[in-house]
Amino acid sequence: MLKDLVKNLKPSSTLAINETSRQMEEQGKKIFKFGFGQSPFQVPNDIVNELKNNAYQNKYLPMQGLFQLRDVVAKYTSKKKNYEYKPDNIIIGPGSKELMFLLHVIFEGEIILPAPSWVSYAPQAILGRNKIQVLQTKRENNWFPTGKEIEEIILKEKKKNYLLFLNSPNNPSGQVCEHLYEISNIARKYNLIILSDEIYSELAFKDNYKSISNVCPEKTIISTGLSKWCGAGGWRLGYFIIPESLNNIKNSINVLVSETFSAVSAPIQYAAIKAYENDHTKYVNKSKNILSAIGKYVYLNLKSNKVLINEPQGGFYLMPEFLNNKFHSSSEMCDDLLKNTGVALLPGSDFGFKSNKMLARLSFTDFDGQAFMDEIEDNQIIKDKEIQKLAPKIIEGVDKLKKWSESL
Q: Are 263 and 130 in the same domain?
């Protein structure tokens, strides 16, 4: 029964750590919020002003989304992907998370989840009553699956439908998938459908970023939105881009849209047009410059013979592994860390890893993004002194984390 499934679920760990951190701060404790992943930057002014100008919009919009918004999103994406998308390929949702849930509900088959996976993929699959195949990945492969590893799962029962989730740049690892062509070959060979979660794609640190949707668009549903690159997580606007070849999925999701959220907030949809119509290159590049510099600082100051870690390639996460025999689980380790240092991390077990692997997610966003943006120039090389001045909690929190790791 669905109600029984719900009873066995716990609240999202990312939201829970934010609430725990807030409560501890209210008790007067100094907390370093390295657990909750949220953009530290403000929404660009032209988009904010457009929201104000459209506050009067009070009519229900088409359930698939405002045509003008879908049109600019289709043109924007077609240019980036070198593949023609039309407004009818777009579904606007109240955050991409809701659209993913609807996809889980309508999909019949098995979900392939590479570990690490974002915390909500598995619970949503459970609610959708789909079987999950967790695919453990390796650090040397950037924490992504190879084509061969995916094929091994499919070959066990080729007649089933499979849906692979790929999130690149990745939450929680901060890594970018490099096995695009071999994965696309598997998708075409076995009729594999891919959900490409590209919510951090605009924040990839290298300019030549490519996703699976660049090399296998006909098998790929793109999931993205405003929350990360635009600093608008609380606005709750995301979207799916579904190719013509997967129209049956789009039509089924639209049926559920009509019976669930009906339509996304009208003022926010009108404001979002400006997000894709206007040029925000300077804003995005400044965001990436800051995040890349801070991420590299954390990486360089944490890596040691006690901490294994990959340099971040996009977004705002790192995934350190702490080499110790003190704790029985990553959850126990993170509890000890928070209690003794005030540094909040999320345990690797929340992202699909075995609990005895001492992995954790670190979000390096505990700083005032607007103040940082205002202080630096475009394309400025950001040095440690700027980070010390403009992101002091990052400096202090990393120092506490490093000393704690050395004491294990």
A: yes
- The whole-angstrom separation of Cα 66 and Cα 8 is 37
Task: Report the SS3 class of residue 239.
Answer: strand
* pLDDT per position as a tens digit, 54-72: 999 999 999 999 999 999 9
CA separation for the pair 278, 281 (Å, rounded): 9
Token pair, residue 288, equals 């990436």
What is d(CA 337, CA 408) in angstroms, rounded to the nearest whole number?
Answer: 11
Please state, in angstroms and rounded to a whole number, the distance separating the CA atoms of residues 365 and 377. Answer: 20
Nearest to 351 by CA among 32, 147, 113: 113
Q: What is the CATH number of the domain that holds 324?
A: 3.90.1150.10
Q: How many CA atoms lie within 13 A of 211 on its CB side?
A: 31
- pLDDT, one tens digit per residue, over 267-312 is 999 999 999 999 999 999 999 999 999 999 999 999 999 999 999 9
Looking at the structure, tell me whether residues 249 and 385 fall in a common domain: no
Predicted TM-score (pTM) of this structure: 0.94
